[in-house]
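Input record (one chain):
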Amino acid sequence: MSDKAVLVDVTDGVATVTLNRPERRNALSDEVSNGIISAIDELEGRDDVRCLVLTGAEGTFCAGGDVSSMAASDDDQQLHDVVRHIQDETSRVIRRVYEFRKPTVAKLDGVAFGAGANLAIACDCVVASERARISFGFKQVGLAVDTGTSYLLPRIVGENVAKELVFTGELVDAERASDLGLFNHVYESFEEQASEFIQTIAEGPTVALETSKQSIVQGFSLDLKAAQDNEATNQAAVFETHDHAEGATAFMESREPEFEGR
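The corresponding structure, as predicted from the sequence alone:
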């Protein structure tokens, strides 16, 4: 495997970004964070990318912030500076993933911890193997939540459950994570079933899915009438796409559409 901190592969419309520091449990060091952001910046403008997948090498998804750099600090001020730097950098990469325009999927075949858990749920969907685990256990290193937990987690599990997961630091197993909505799917035949799910998204009408994603995010801050008006405005642009014409034609011809992502 390459010695690069972040690997990028684009195949059949799916861009897979792999955190590649398994010896550090794929923690969000500066090298990894910058690698993710650079990869996403490059992938954002590519017409052949229809879905982004984020995963970790050799089992672990992401252990969160680079705690080893905290342990190396010699005094309180240096520790404060290091913690703040880690927060800033990990927050930046999580925000970049969350703001990616096209559909995103986190693919977990191991543990996502702390900021690594936020990185997972910053994606639109999370698919997991039966051995996957997730924890918002900032308390384990004596810290409060950061990097977006207070924004992302309650939107998925609700306020009370979010507080419980933070207060206990529970390492949530795949079945419970699925029940709570943290994982969209837990697969027994992980690679095969996850690939089928991801390909279903990648083969969809990309512009329409991108627009739907935008409308859903915007809907959190709107009342119903404003959300409907926003959808109507967004929909107008989608009517002009090739994929809308193909979808309408396929419907009339009683066949499956063959979307091209344009």
